[in-house]
Amino acid sequence: AQSVTQPDIHITVSEGASLELRCNYSYGATPYLFWYVQSPGQGLQLLLKYFSGDTLVQGIKGFEAEFKRSQSSFNLRKPSVHWSDAAEYFCAGIPSGGSYIPTFGRGTSLIVHP
Amino acid sequence: EAGVAQSPRYKIIEKRQSVAFWCNPISGHATLYWYQQILGQGPKLLIQFQNNGVVDDSQLPKDRFSAERLKGVDSTLKIQPAKLEDSAVYLCASSLGPSGRNEQFFGPGTRLTVL
Fold first, then answer.
1. A111: pLDDT confidence band, cut at 50, 70 and 90?
2. 3-state secondary structure B27-73
3. Minimal CA separation from B109 to chain A, in Å
4. How distant is the Cα of A56 from the closest Cα of chain B, in angstroms?
């Protein structure tokens, strides 16, 4: 079965520190991969996406993610976290062929200490 | 450009009552999605429309949930009768087309509490 796993429920970092949020996927073929951010009471906003090609993708708000086929991972990174980055982050996958049914991970809550 | 609109933003009902949610997608977006997001979990797709036709509703509990998009624009999701476990945020999203390459734009959601 297709799945997306985010192993960390909560991540706490200090403002200005670097960040890495983990995401692993399980699909028959490489899916399209996405990272979304959700602030309290808001809908999801797309940070970045990977379809194919360059395995390091740049997104909005200074985020980037690296696709690693050998590890079935698509980890999200940011070199210096700002207090406004505190939010819920979701990784999602969509099959690249056939049905385009998205599957989301459970989410990782990012807490930023001043 | 206006985003995806949803109403109401909050709804509290008692179990066994019925409830309906409304979604107006971004103008020109042919594909519309309804998701259920239970507290502490990621969104789960309930139903996907392409214009006014259903693309996928395999995860929709059809004994109590129904959805329609009669004119291919706005959509309504209904629950009848509601159960305690239906307490969740219901998110609507839209995209230009059904391909996974088309970005989904999400509305703010409707938070449903079933007592």
1. very high
2. CCCCEEEEEEECCCCCCEEEEEEECCEEEECCCCCCCCEEEECCCCC
3. 6
4. 17
